TrEMBL record:
Official protein name in the record: Leucine carboxyl methyltransferase 1
Gene3D superfamilies: Vaccinia Virus protein VP39
UniProt function note: Methylates the carboxyl group of the C-terminal leucine residue of protein phosphatase 2A catalytic subunits to form alpha-leucine ester residues.
EC number: 2.1.1.233
EC category name: transferase
UniProt xrefs under InterPro entries: LCMT1, Ppm1/Ppm2/Tcmp, SAM-dependent_MTases_sf
Any single GO BP term: methylation
Keyword Cell inner membrane: no
Gene Ontology terms: cellular component: cytosol
A Pfam family of this chain: LCM
Binding site for S-adenosyl-L-methionine: R52, G77, D148, I149, E175
Catalytic activity: [phosphatase 2A protein]-C-terminal L-leucine + S-adenosyl-L-methionine = [phosphatase 2A protein]-C-terminal L-leucine methyl ester + S-adenosyl-L-homocysteine
SUPFAM superfamilies: S-adenosyl-L-methionine-dependent methyltransferases
Length: 311
């Protein structure tokens, strides 16, 4: 079966995001180019994705505010993410944006970008040059590269092709990516980043507090879909999430479960989205939030004060 079920989680997450956007949880003008079919999800799933998107956005904004236009973003397991286009529409200047995923996923994304004028127009640089292969796309400061991040040598080669500057402040994003990778491969990746990049912040969204009945059910559901969670050992609790960074040469780390993240969102904004769908079982939502977290690791002190409060 290999990596196919893991790649399929991109389609599932993209479908969920499109569904939540359609209902009005947040706006995304570009996801409809990547996802056509939408299946109605349970309200707690939509709220879960809303908290995930808002929580990660919070750190992206904080990072860009601190790093300025020299900022780089490396999005691991980016799938059909639309962040680049959103930043472009907001007029936010960054030096480089790199999306990284399995070649079969990036091949689909490159194809969709190529055939949608609205997507293609936003990534052109001044001279309009777009370098496109079956799995990779390079245009201006946007790069979509197909590579297995377990292969550090290949990853490094591809990052050079994407004109990554290892001395610039770099934001690394991973949403439910590391949990599918063997622990030694994750350790090698985090250790390589900490030795290669001068300044950076890693934002990781993933499971946590998995050592209970609810966690067992979640694991069972994923295993039934063929997803073996090779990196689940780091998802025991917030401390094991943080330790992963500290043990691999990062300067510091903080973590929050999604209950904390959700209640850090402004009351008026929470009130707005809570009116979109009636939620019968508040308890189920809280249980779900208790089993996911955002963990950050930093390589330099300027990012050490970042928090999930005041979203």
């Amino acid at each position: 079966m290999g990596d196919e079920p893991v790649m399929a989680t991109n389609d599932d997450a993209s479908d969920c995001k499109r569904g939540a956007v359609q209902l009005g949880y947040w706006s995304d003008d570009y996801i409809s180019y990547f996802v056509k079919h939408v299946e109605r999800r349970a309200p707690e799933i939509n709220r879960g994705y809303y908290a995930r998107v808002k929580g990660i956005e919070n750190f992206i904004q904080k990072f860009i505010n601190k790093a300025g236009s020299s900022a780089q973003i490396l999005n691991f397991g980016s799938g059909f993410d639309t962040l680049y286009w959103k930043l472009k529409d907001e007029g936010i200047q960054i030096s480089n944006y790199v999306e990284i995923d399995f070649p079969s996923v990036t091949a689909r994304k490159c194809y969709m970008i190529k055939r949608n004028k609205q997507l293609l127009e936003r990534i052109h640089d001044q001279d309009g040059e777009v370098k496109l292969s079956a799995t990779d796309l390079h245009a201006g400061n946007y790069h979509c590269i197909g590579v297995d991040i377990r292969n550090i040598h290949q990853l490094e080669d591809k990052l050079y092709q994407a004109e990554v500057n290892f001395n610039r402040p770099t934001l690394f994003i991973a949403e439910c990516v590391l949990v599918y990778i063997e622990n030694e491969c994750v350790n090698r990746l985090l250790s390589w980043i900490s030795s290669k990049f001068k300044s950076g912040l890693f934002v990781n969204y993933e499971m946590c507090n998995m050592n209970d009945t609810f966690g067992d059910v979640m694991l069972g559901n994923l295993k039934a879909r063929g997803c073996t969670l090779a990196g689940i050992a780091h998802c025991k609790n917030l401390d094991t999430q943080k330790a992963r960074f500290i043990n691999n040469g990062w300067l510091g780390s903080s973590a929050w479960d999604m209950v904390q993240v959700y209640y850090a969102i402004s009351p008026s904004e929470r009130h707005r989205i809570e009116k979109i769908e009636f939620l019968d079982e508040q308890e189920l939502l809280i249980q779900l939030f208790q089993h996911y977290c955002i963990c950050i690791g930093w390589l330099s002190t300027e990012f050490s004060e970042f928090s999930c409060t005041d979203i």
